[in-house]
Amino acid sequence: MSNGSIRLLFTRLRTEEKLLAEAAEKRGLPLAIENVRDAVFPKRQKSGDIFLCRCIGHHQNLAVARMLEGSGFRTVNSSRVMELCGDKVATSSVLHEAGIPQPGYRVAFSREGALRAAAELGYPVVFKPATGSWGRLLAKAQDMETAEAIAEHKEHLGPQHQIFYIQQWVEKDGFDIRAFIIGGEPVCAIRRYSGHWITNTARGGSVKVHPLDTELENLLLRVYDAIQGDFLAVDLFFTKGGYLVNEINDGAEFRNSITPTGEDIPGRVVELCASLLKRKPSKTGRNKPACKIAEHRGPEVTNLH
Amino acid sequence: MEIFATCTICECNIQIPEGTMEGEILLCPDCGTELEVLSLEPLRLEEAPEVEEDWGE
Predict the structure, then answer these.
(1) Residue A153, CA distances (Å) to A110, A137, A139, A228 in order
(2) Judging by DSSP bridges, how do beta strands A242-249 and A231-239 pair with one another?
(3) What are the extents of the domains in chain A?
């Protein structure tokens, strides 16, 4: 057994981080919890530690992971996985290349381009910020007039909103699916019901278990092959034509998924981290590249030492 | 032992639940403000930062 510890890094302590800490304590696993909101990197760290990066802000989490990887540490998830999951353009691109079914989408860079993209997809469409979560700033356009208004507003929201990610509207019968992959293994899934077209448990609604069937398991394994990632939450639509992968989350919230599925999600995550502690680090100590695509396309991790 | 703190916004008395940890968010029962636990010893609360555009999962 390594002398290292699991270091759980956070900036806002959610129920999930407390559940992870409790799960480690219950198993007698070494886990230290650390608020990195005011931290400065790079800094001296104990070798052999595994960093479970749970900062609530995508960009800070990514930056923290990059700093740690640059110093030779293993992070959960890796910065490459965070990059792929934290940017819907990157996610869609990887899914597309892997031939994984997803809702129709277009990416455009101007108001005119956005309107052309929406027309190509056919109304209604959903405008999504490339980076964002909890259903924030999603906008459904029923027709061209609405799309024009949304595109105009987005043009004034800053450069990050000038990349228009537009998705085909999917009829989902009142629910979507959230499935978890831990250590490459599909673990469980829930259905998220809501009267609102945005089904996200952060916005309310109810949940119940969605049993993993062979089709879903195989699809999740394909997602894992494409993205990698130690701990992923995959959001899917269940349509007449089969499953469609909507989004993939690298910093999953799971508090509402434990009871309906009966799966000890935090327990499995800390056990995965503990298993990584036992592994001999690679020569560079860095995370295994997320995938071939990311290796070629992702920005380089700079070692500041 | 019950521990109490004062809401930084409305100055009402807030009971700190057992097992509260640093970095956790408490909701003021009177004014509804989200308060972040900055430290436990000494106990310090501050109005929690607003949700940022890249926060989430």
Answers:
(1) 12, 11, 11, 36
(2) antiparallel
(3) 6-85+269-297, 104-168, 172-263
Average pLDDT, chain A: 90
CB A101 within 8 A of CB A170: no
Overall CATH class of domain A104-168: alpha beta
Which residue in A257, A92, A238, A278 sits closest to A181, CA to CA? A257
What are A71-94's pLDDT values in tens digits? 999 999 999 999 999 999 999 999
pLDDT at A289 over 80: no
Q: Which residues from chain A sit within 8 angstroms of residue B53, using beta carbons?
A: 129, 131-132, 136-137, 160
Q: Residue A252 is nearest to which of B48, B55, B57, comparing CB atoms?
A: B57
Q: Would you mind telling me the total number of residues written for chain A in this entry?
A: 305
Of A21, A37, A133, the CB nearest to B56: A133
Quick one: pLDDT band at residue A276, thresholds 50, 70, 90?
Answer: very high
Assign A220 a pLDDT band (cuts: 50, 70, 90): very high
Give B1's pLDDT tier (boundaries 50, 70, 90).
confident
What residue in A sits closest to B38 (Cα-Cα)?
A: A35
**Chain A residue closest to B39 (CA)?**
A35
Residues of chain A in Cβ contact (below 8 Å) with chain B: 10-13, 17-18, 21, 33, 35, 37, 56-59, 86, 129, 131-134, 136-137, 160, 202, 233, 249-253
CA torsion sign for A260, A219, A85, A53 is positive
What's this model's pTM, rounded to 2 decimal places?
0.88
Assigned CATH for A172-263: 3.30.470.20
Collapsing DSSP to helix, strand or coil, A39 comes out as coil
Closest-approach residue (CA) in chain A for B22: A13
Q: pLDDT tens-digit profile of A100-109?
A: 999 999 999 9
The full set of domains in chain B, from first to last, is: 3-47 (2.20.28.160)
Q: May I ask the CATH architecture of the domain A6-85+269-297?
A: 3-Layer(aba) Sandwich (3.40)
